[in-house]
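Subject — a protein and its fold
Fields — amino acid sequence, structure tokens
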Amino acid sequence: MHDALLLLITRNIETHSSIANSKELASTKRQLEKPITEDQKENLVKNFRADELMEFYKSDLKLKKFLHIIENSPVYPVIYDHNRTILSLPPIINGAHSAITLKTKNIFIECTATDLTKAKTVLNTVVTTFSEYCERKFEIEPVEVIYSDGSSNIYPELSVYNMEVSLSYITGAIGVPLEAEEVTSLLNRMQLHAEQSVSGDNSTINVSVPPTRSDVLHPCDVMEDVAIAYGYNIVKDIAIAKGYNISKGRAVSLKPLRLEEFSHLIRLEMAMCGFTEVLSFICAHLAIILQC
């Protein structure tokens, strides 16, 4: 159980910092499913109104950076249980009442978000990863979410979507002649179920993308997975040795740009001088970087 909780917490942190853009778009919580008893309220020190709570957390070094997400909202999102006990104030803080322990057996994972697509991605990532540690492995109990307008949906939506990728596109972009059987085998190693389908004169690879691979959005992502499984170093050696011509859709070579080579030398010199390279928020919006 210790490994399962450690994995769950790790995945939670990873999705918050990457997919959810530091909780700006989504936030997940792990709630212990249990009834409330009076003795669990003994740690309560003070009652707060919502605006007072925001002011109180401004002095907290960890939480204050998330306050702006809801601080100016006319209403704050709050998660209650059936007895109206507060379980969470997303995306700021979770309640101790429903904290999980090593003895916890039933866990309810929920995700709040301002972006539905991000919410689905984060939820799918967390529940599919954690499902390995369920008593019945990989079994997830869905829930019905009822919205204020009366509409409802069942989550998580663990659907698989299919993508067709041309074999010539994969081999041409990588620069290595691969047979369809080799490509499907490499993709299967990357958790992508792939099968060959022949349509006319063009060989196509049918790829089934599971909910665990939310990073696969385009045929270039499939091509990249093939290159990773095949081995970048092997690709480089073959591409240069064969001298593939770019006019035929092949890479002339995988030699880096002169600017990249120069940057690499600078990074090595800086590292040998005792500096540590940090690439935090490299893909983040400039406004977010300036706020840090």
